């Protein structure tokens, strides 16, 4: 399936739906309005363009060029790549230890191991960890150039690329006078406005252990709902131990914070994407503490015992499955950074 576009007309007016492959996942979009079809074509083009800038699998992308020039020279980059790197570094600096886009060499090590189901040798992980360091990104915002300090370093935007795309597509849809839309960028939902009838969008949150089941849903307007989970991409070794794709930059191993899924609800799609990965690594306790400094963000945490925790702002908006125990996290006291 390259791309399919379908039109549906209902009591809400004209609705266009589109499904396509991009950024290694299936994306589906629906938009309402007289220019909906045009808007979705533009969305598809924009996502492909961004993939061409961010992907480490595309030879001429900004990221591939930066990675090839690591330790040697800086590369001219697009304003979009500059913004993503700036945001990523900002969050890594503000909440150190959990999120790092220079994780490329480690991701690569695990990706290769994944194919054969044998985890990388401990020594290889130990040798690779010093290459992971966001402080080695040399970013010149005015000149729009980026470089990596050491040979062997590599940037991987896997934890933020779709987030940036979400913010861009929302702006793009608005240029086509679309005021109501729902996009699923592979476990990453972005909504624009409300449903055409004025009611909120209801976004389902996937059950981390049963495919096709939900733990609940959250009703939102104009927000992104982004989930990072240990179930999205994983392999298991001969003993059945699960190795998933969210790594702890400090240990070099898949994160074992006790959480198996984190969803972040925020108006900013990029920040929600980044934060869902970051909180997943931080774990429940530290994650809650750092959320106090981000009052505009709400979150749903799921631990390995299938306890579900929600931040106070989601009370009344999160509707959980009746078989699942929901815990309300305490009121956040601090509201400032
Ligand atoms: P998904 O890709 O399933 O949407 P995430 O948004 O959580 O899930 O991103 C996971 C991807 O981000 C990984 O595949 C990897 O490329 C990258 N990544 C994994 N761990 C980290 C981390 N601690 N910091 C930054 N990027 C990470
Ligand atoms: Mg993410």
Could you please describe the fold and organization of this structure?
- This protein is an alpha+beta fold and 337 residues long.
- The chain has a domain at 62-148: ApbE-like superfamily (T-fold).
- It contains eight helices and 18 strands.
- The protein has helices at residues 36-54, 62-68, 79-94, 104-116, 122-128, 161-175, 269-282, 284-291, and strands spanning 3-10, 13-22, 25-32, 75-76, 137-140, 145-148, 180-184, 188-192, 201-206, 214-220, 224-229, 234-236, 242-244, 259-266, 298-303, 308-310, 318-320, 326-328.
- The strands form four sheets. The protein has a ten-stranded mixed sheet with strand order 1-2-3-7-8-11-14-15-16-18, covered by helices on one side.
- Strand 2 and strand 3 form a beta hairpin.
- The mean pLDDT is 92.
- The structure holds adenosine-5'-diphosphate (ADP) and magnesium ion (MG).
- Residues 159, 228, 273, 276-277 line the site of magnesium ion (MG).
């Amino acid at each position: 399936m390259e791309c399919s576009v379908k039109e549906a007309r209902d009591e809400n007016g004209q609705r266009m739906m589109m499904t396509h492959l991009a950024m290694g996942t299936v994306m589906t979009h629906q938009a309402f309005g007289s220019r909906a079809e045009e808007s979705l074509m533009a969305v598809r083009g924009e996502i492909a363009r961004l993939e061409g800038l961010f992907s480490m699998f595309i030879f001429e992308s900004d990221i591939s060029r930066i990675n090839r020039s690591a330790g040697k020279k800086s590369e001219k980059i697009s304003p979009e790549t500059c913004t993503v790197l700036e945001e990523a570094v900002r969050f890594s600096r503000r909440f150190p230890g959990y999120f790092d886009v220079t994780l490329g060499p480690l991701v690569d090590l695990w990706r290769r191991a994944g194919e054969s189901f044998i985890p990388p040798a401990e020594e290889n992980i130990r040798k690779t960890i010093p290459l992971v360091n966001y402080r080695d990104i040399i970013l010149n915002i005015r000149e729009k150039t980026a470089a990596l300090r050491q040979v062997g370093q590599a940037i991987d935007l896997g934890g933020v690329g779709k987030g940036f795309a979400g913010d861009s597509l929302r702006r793009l849809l608005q240029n086509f006078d679309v005021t109501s839309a729902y996009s699923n960028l592979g476990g990453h939902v972005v909504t624009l406005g409300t449903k055409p009838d004025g009611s909120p969008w209801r976004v389902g949150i996937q059950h981390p252990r049963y495919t096709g089941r939900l733990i609940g849903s959250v009703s939102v307007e104009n927000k992104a709902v982004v989930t990072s989970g240990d179930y999205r991409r994983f392999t298991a070794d001969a003993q059945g131990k699960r190795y998933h794709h969210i790594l702890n930059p400090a240990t070099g191993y898949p994160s074992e914070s006790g959480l198996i899924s984190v969803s972040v609800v925020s108006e900013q799609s990029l920040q929600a994407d980044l934060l869902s990965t970051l909180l997943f690594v931080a774990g429940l306790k530290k994650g809650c503490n750092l959320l106090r400094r981000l009052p505009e963000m709400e979150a749903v945490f799921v631990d390995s015992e299938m306890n579900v925790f929600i931040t106070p702002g989601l009370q009344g908006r999160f509707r959980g499955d009746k078989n699942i125990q929901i815990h309300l996290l305490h009121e956040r006291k601090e509201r400032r950074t």
